[in-house]
Write a structure and sequence with these properties.
Strand 11, helix 13 (326-338) and strand 12 form a beta-alpha-beta unit. The strands form 3 sheets. Strands 1-2-6-9-10-11-12-13 form an 8-stranded parallel β-barrel, surrounded by 5 helices. Strands 3-4 form a two-stranded antiparallel ribbon. It has helices spanning 4-7, 17-23, 25-34, 96-106, 121-126, 148-164, 195-202, 207-215, 220-237, 245-284, 299-302, 306-309, 326-338, 358-370, 386-395, and strands at residues 11-15, 39-47, 50-52, 61-63, 67-69, 110-116, 130-132, 138-143, 169-173, 288-291, 315-319, 345-350, 376-378. The protein is of the alpha/beta class. It has one domain: TIM Barrel (Alpha-Beta Barrel). The chain binds zinc ion (ZN). Zinc ion binds next to helix 8.
């Protein structure tokens, strides 16, 4: 067992490796530590993005990879999956990651591998391992956690990161089912769906998900054709002939209640077991485990059994929204505590860019500290301005 005080950072920056390399590792770490930050959540597997980098000396508007690794993988580990890991074009050599880790360690910083698993346009598009909706349309951003190649790929990725690199911990992202519409590119969508309809649209019906549901006794063909018909009929009435969201939820329960519950149960086992397995790989080699959105998301969407996983996390990040009131923050903290073991450290994930002034930023951090959250993660180093960094530096007495 590790000593929590020794291993867990008090405040961390989410960082992209290219921002550290572009600025120069030494200077970047000095600037980060100058903000009073003692930890890095360093992206090692990351999703699609376009970035405006106001302080980066080498690039300003950066069109990133569509889903790639920021290290050179140990390819032998991926022999059980047909999914070939893709390495980002900025990775210049085998030392790309170890150089940052070595310098961070020399400077007394804690490091966490920020690993994005199944949100990956590059892979979902090319390897036919993406989610498939009830109409049979493949998703181009989300890999399906039921797919055996995806499961082997995720397992290999975890092993690669925790066995081959000296991180203190791992931050797990998108190792679950994701919501309908997450990852749409330049969406052209003229319809809005309430929560319950989005849930149906977000269900995966790939062959693996169908098999898992069949084992739960679901007549999948009948369920799918029923859903297709119901959703088509719902869309015919949009936007002004539909019942209230509450009534829609009741209707869905009446028509699909039993099959839907069984389908969700199968997904719950699929997603939760994958998360558990990967966390145990990290634990076996002494890494701590951090996670973000799961405690704030609808478990029917993610497939994660929150009660079953509540003991598994050392650190959990709750997202601080724009201009939050004390009540909103308290509700978020309470919900997180309800879903977590008492030993889990709650971190506030704060995006300085959501605030208009240093004053409103600082007031929010004071509110959080007043309600018992005095560990922070800031999002994220490369996209913030110098003023944002000053704001963080000026509040660091709250956690130091
Ligand atoms: Zn699936």
């Amino acid at each position: 067992m590790y000593d929590k005080e020794d291993m867990l950072p008090k405040a961390t920056f989410f960082v992209y490796p290219w921002d550290i390399h572009d600025e120069g590792i030494g200077l970047a770490l000095k600037n980060i530590q100058g903000c009073g930050i003692d930890g890095l959540e360093l992206a090692v597997s990351y999703h699609i993005g376009t970035y405006v980098l106001p302080r980066n000396p080498k690039r300003f508007a950066y069109s990133g990879n569509h889903g790639a690794l920021y290290f050179q993988p140990d390819r032998a580990l991926y022999s059980k999956t047909s999914i070939e890991p893709v390495v980002a074009d900025v990775v210049e050599g085998p030392d790309y990651l170890t150089q940052i880790l070595g310098a961070a360690r020399e400077n007394g910083m804690k490091t966490t591998a920020w690993v994005v698993y199944c949100y990956n346009h590059q892979l979902a598009r090319n390897v036919k391992a993406g989610k498939v909706n009830v109409f049979g349309d493949p998703d181009h951003g989300q890999l399906c956690v039921a797919n055996t190649d995806v499961r082997e790929y995720c397992t290999a990725l975890t092993k690669d990161v925790v066995d081959n690199y000296s991180f203190d911990g791992i931050f797990v992202e998108s190792l679950d089912y994701m919501p309908f519409g997450y990852g749409f590119l330049n969406p052209k969508v003229a319809v809005r769906f309430p929560t319950e309809v989005s849930l149906l649209l977000g269900l995966c019906f790939c062959e693996y998900c169908q098999q898992a549901a069949s084992r739960q006794g679901v007549d999948v063909d009948r369920f799918m054709s029923g859903l297709q018909e119901w959703i088509r009929e719902y869309c015919r009435k949009l936007p002004d002939m539909i019942p209230s969201p509450e009534m829609v939820a009741v209707q869905i329960q009446e028509v699909f209640g039993e099959e839907l519950a069984a389908y969700l149960k199968a997904r719950r086992e699929t997603a939760t077991s994958l998360l558990e397995n990967n966390i145990s790989l990290a634990r076996q080699v002494g890494k701590h485990v951090a996670i973000g959105g799961i405690v704030e998301s609808d478990p029917r969407v993610t497939g994660i059994d929150v009660q079953r996983t509540r003991q598994l996390f050392d650190r959990v990040f709750i997202t601080v929204p724009q201009d939050p009131t004390r009540e909103i923050l308290r509700a978020k903290i309470e919900k997180a505590k309800d879903n977590l073991a008492p030993s889990t450290e709650i971190y506030a994930l704060v995006s300085p860019s959501l605030f208009d002034s240093e004053q409103s930023f600082g007031e929010t951090l004071y509110l959080l500290k007043g309600d018992g959250v005095d560990r922070f993660g800031f999002y994220n180093y490369g996209i913030l301005t110098e003023r944002h960094l000053h704001w963080i530096a000026n509040t660091c007495h709250l956690w130091r």
